[in-house]
Design goal:
- It is a single chain.
- The protein is 50% helix and 13% strand.
- It is an alpha+beta fold.
- Among the domains are: 7-37 and 262-294; 47-107, Alpha-Beta Plaits; 129-161 and 170-216, GMP Synthetase, Chain A, domain 3 (2-Layer Sandwich), CATH 3.30.300.30.
- The strands form two sheets. Strands 1-3-2 form a three-stranded antiparallel sheet, covered by helices on one side.
- Helix 3 packs antiparallel against helix 9.
- The longest helix has 34 residues, at 228-261.
């Protein structure tokens, strides 16, 4: 007698569920294009932070200097919203640091008289009050000299001697002015005005007790000649980014349309897979029985003779 169901017949008529799952999970070409374009856009838009904890004025000045030098720079608010961050492309990071350093950026923040003489205790000693006054005076003069055109950095060191009540000889104050100016800027003709500014700001300071020292800043190193690809990107980078964005939108639209059109086929495949799973579970005992029958053939039955 021929068996109704064999192991080969069961395997052929009841496919294993999930056999075509790998093929179904393979992403279509629009999805691949979308992922590739997205990764390219993220790589092209990456920024590296130059300086943080800046005021808005400092950030604006630094961004303007970098953009005038032909570098890409952006300003963004920090996470807490209390400061600003200046960033640039990773390829321009080294040159951006050199340009800002040569220009004296970020500018130093000077304390005002109100900040220095902020009342924090009940009683202040005479030495503490004198030190605060000297520091505040130096900060105010440094901030004033730093605003002169061509000055990169300015420092004023003031020495105010302590009055001796037992001596009739007056002790005069002294001041030393350090100025770092841009290369090619001649401030030697402004020395007299600078000394007069310091003398009139301090009581009892003779004109001859003011020393002004000027030093030129290092010139900005010349930029390396751009490569062929770098020149093309600098000239057509914006257009390439725009085209890439449009292509990503088109790829997303095509992928959405393809998914929408395949919805009935996907539902039918899912229903077929579920039906195959139910049939496979139902005939599983028959498969095991067929396998046992093949492994151990039935022995002829011996009957008793009467």
């Amino acid at each position: 007698m021929r068996p109704l169901l064999t192991a080969r017949t069961l395997l052929r008529t009841c496919p294993i569920p999930g056999a075509n799952a790998r093929k179904a999970r393979t992403p279509s070409w629009p999805a691949r294009v979308l992922v590739t374009v997205t990764l390219a856009l993220l790589a092209a838009c990456s920024q590296q932070e130059l300086y943080g904890q800046l005021t808005e004025r400092q950030a604006n000045e630094m961004v303007a200097v970098l953009r005038n030098a032909g570098l890409h720079a952006e300003k963004a608010a920090s996470r807490d919203g209390k400061a600003f961050v200046v960033s640039t492309r990773p390829d321009d990071f080294s040159r951006a640091v050199e340009i800002l350093h040569a220009g004296g950026f970020p500018r130093d923040s000077f304390d005002t008289l109100g900040q220095v003489f902020k009342k924090e205790g009940f009683v202040s000693s005479a030495l503490e009050e004198r030190a605060r006054f000297t520091h505040a005076l130096s900060q105010e003069l440094s901030a004033t000299l730093s605003s002169i055109d061509g000055v990169v950095q300015a420092r004023v060191h003031v020495s105010v001697p302590e009055k001796n009540p037992l001596s009739d000889k007056p002790q005069h104050s002294t001041a030393s002015v350090f100025i770092k100016h841009r290369p090619g800027v001649d401030l030697s003709q402004q020395t007299g005005k600078i000394k007069a500014l310091v003398v009139n700001a301090m009581e009892g300071l003779p004109y001859d007790n003011v020393t002004v020292a000027m030093f030129p800043a290092e010139p900005i190193p010349p930029a390396a000649p751009p490569s062929f690809l770098g020149g093309l990107w600098a000239q057509y980078g914006g257009m390439v980014m725009l085209v890439a964005g449009l292509l990503s939108l088109i790829a997303a639209a095509v992928a959405a349309m393809a998914w929408w059109q395949r919805r009935p086929a996907a539902a039918a495949a899912l229903a077929e897979t579920g039906l195959a799973s139910m049939v496979g579970a139902a005939v599983a005992p028959l498969r095991r029985g067929a396998a046992v029958a093949v492994a151990s053939p039935a022995q002829p039955r011996v009957g008793s003779e009467s």
